[in-house]
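can u do me a favor
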């Protein structure tokens, strides 16, 4: 009996360690490891459908799965394109993706990145109503080595970070946003590069998440999004479930 209690109590301790108030709940992820297609389909984890917004004059492959990645090619059509997860509306979230810039542009801005807290599908990075974290190779503002990561809210620039050496075409980078209420943290290759507190309470709303480009060709991989909502009811539920085990252990 004592032995059983030891095992049960050990399991309880392990459970409590892993159910911390800051734990995120994975809601959707996609590695795009499936057959080449002009339709993105649904996320293997979570089962959310990708809604594609392609330029009206697009070629069919402007948004496509190719080589177990997703390609968003806005450059050839000179416009914004995007893909968002339908039916997944979040306020506090942890979203990440791997991205790789395509060929070097010649004469324009060159944008790609993450979107979140969007009021609806169909927003590119130039007209986003919600938040975007945009990787910018800004040839208007300087040479290509002036690569930036910019945080924008409701179509306006809020703050940014300049990446030393810019972004190299064909190279993988990871981009992650942790948005919790008014606080937005952005990580590039695992390093925090933006930590911004938004003074506008109207920006702390729920909305859709996705990926997008504007006048740029980017490929993306390993998209995932978690809910940061405090899982307090789950913790309490586990405690309630294990209370009899604890009481039984004490009686022995
Ligand atoms: Ca498509
Ligand atoms: Ca992949």
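np, heres the sequence
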């Amino acid at each position: 009996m004592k032995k059983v209690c030891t095992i049960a109590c050990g399991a309880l301790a392990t459970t409590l360690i892993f159910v911390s108030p800051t734990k995120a709940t994975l809601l959707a992820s996609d590695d795009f490891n499936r057959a080449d297609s002009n339709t993105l389909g649904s996320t293997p984890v979570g089962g959310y459908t990708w809604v594609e917004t392609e330029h009206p004059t697009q070629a069919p492959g402007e948004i496509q799965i190719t080589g177990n990645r997703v390609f968003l090619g806005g450059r050839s059509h000179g416009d914004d394109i995007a893909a968002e997860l339908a039916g997944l509306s979040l306020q506090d979230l942890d979203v990440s993706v791997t991205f790789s810039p395509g060929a070097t542009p010649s004469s324009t801005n060159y944008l790609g990145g993450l979107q979140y807290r969007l009021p609806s599908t169909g927003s590119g990075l130039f007209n986003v109503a919600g938040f975007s974290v945009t990787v910018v190779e800004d040839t208007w503002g300087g040479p290509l080595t002036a690569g930036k990561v910019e945080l924008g809210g409701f179509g306006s620039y809020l703050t940014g970070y300049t990446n030393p050496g810019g972004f190299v075409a064909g190279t993988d980078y990871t981009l992650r946003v942790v948005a919790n209420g008014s606080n937005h943290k952005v990580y590039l290759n695992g390093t925090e590069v933006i930590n911004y507190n938004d003074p506008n309470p109207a920006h702390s709303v729920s909305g859709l998440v996705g990926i997008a480009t504007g006048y740029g060709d980017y490929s993306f991989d390993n998209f995932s999004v978690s809910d940061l909502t405090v899982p307090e009811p789950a913790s309490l539920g586990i405690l309630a479930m294990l209370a009899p085990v604890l009481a039984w252990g004490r009686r022995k």
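The chain has two domains: 1-23+231-252, 24-230. hope that helps!!
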